[in-house]
């Protein structure tokens, strides 16, 4: 049900890179494909220095429904992803945890979502101890229609 195209609307994270480069946020879209009925193949499309990139990741199903695992290279590089809330047709709020660090992302089926959904997102952010000063909203225009470069993260 998560399959299809989504737009990254907002993100809350204590990531220092995000804080330092927040003025350079680019419109970001993802395409989710369900593989073998369980795993998620996620292609992220975004610009970096004017070039459109595709970043491919594969999330494996974890023990519980709505939980997935991205295995990275090296020790301690795995990321747990949990579907916090979604109606499958307009929005999804996802949690990402790597070690002690947690991030919350809001995706929409369109690049803009209703104020009600933004309120839900901001409640979820506060519930995990994040705040507005580490919340970033992404541009609603300038999406990549085609890819100039691609990169596979495994």
UniProtKB/TrEMBL annotation:
It is found in: Secreted. This is CO8G protein. GO terms for molecular function: complement binding. The keyword Iron-sulfur does not apply. PANTHER family: COMPLEMENT COMPONENT C8 GAMMA CHAIN. It comes from the Eukaryota. Keywords: Disulfide bond, Secreted, Signal. Signal peptide: none annotated. Residues 3-137 form the Lipocalin/cytosolic fatty-acid binding domain. One of its GO terms (cellular component) is blood microparticle. The keyword Signal applies. GO terms for biological process: complement activation. It comes from Sagittarius serpentarius (Secretary bird). It holds the Pfam family Lipocalin. SUPFAM superfamilies: Lipocalins (SSF50814). The gene is C8g. InterPro entries: A1-microglobln, C8G, Calycin, Lipocln_cytosolic_FA-bd_dom.
